[in-house]
Amino acid sequence: MKWINHKILTFSIIWTITDSITAGIISAFGSIFPDAIEFFVYYIFPLKRTHRTWSHWFVIYLIPLILISISHYLILNQTFAFFIKFFLIGALFHIAEDSITGKVPGIILKKKIGFRFFKTGSFEEYLFTFTFSSILITTKLFNLKV
Ligand SMILES: [Zn+2]
To answer: How far is the CA of 99 from the centre of ligand 1 (A)?
Structure first.
């Protein structure tokens, strides 16, 4: 999935769920992290690039998210914890969104799972993003009950 679609989808879903524009924006930034860290690492280390492998493994985002959530009361800087939590949630959304345009690692890193409902960057991907996000944003703006 293209970065613009990751950002739009993640923002609209998180904003709808949490009622927080800040959470939506932070998670939109997190929603490009798995690709960004992959580009960065392979730029620094000229290794053979493997797309959607370790950087797209949900476990590396879910474990810190769980740790931050259960130690919530031990963290003094709640703003920082809020930022990290929604950033990690955004990264998890990236992986879920990528799984509808291809395969991502499952429980086991080497075993990939996913669907290929449409190709990355295809008209269908943009149409899906536009339609799904429009429904969410319209529902939110007009405070409609679903
Ligand atoms: Zn990706």
So the answer is: 9
How far is the centre of ligand 1, averaged over its atoms, from the C-alpha of 20 (Å)? 25
- Residue 50 domain-assigned (yes or no): yes
Task: List the single range of 1-5, 16-20, 48-52, 54-58 with lowest mean pLDDT.
Answer: 48-52
Q: How many domains does the chain have?
A: 1
- Rounded to the nearest angstrom, the distance between the alpha carbon of 21 and the centre of ligand 1 is 23
Q: Do 125 and 132 meet the contact criterion of CB atoms below 8 Å apart?
A: no
User: Ligand 1 mean position to 76 CA, how many Å?
Assistant: 33
Report the b/e string of 26-54 with b at 16+ CB within 10 A: bbbbbbbbbbbebeeeeeeeeeeeeebee
The answer to the question of residue 146 being in a domain is no
Instruction: Tell whether 85 is covered by a domain.
Output: yes
- 49 found inside a domain: yes
Q: How far is the CA of 131 from the centre of ligand 1 (A)?
A: 21
Q: Which domain holds residue 131?
A: 3-141
pLDDT tens track for 35-77: 999 999 988 888 777 889 999 999 999 999 999 999 877 888 8
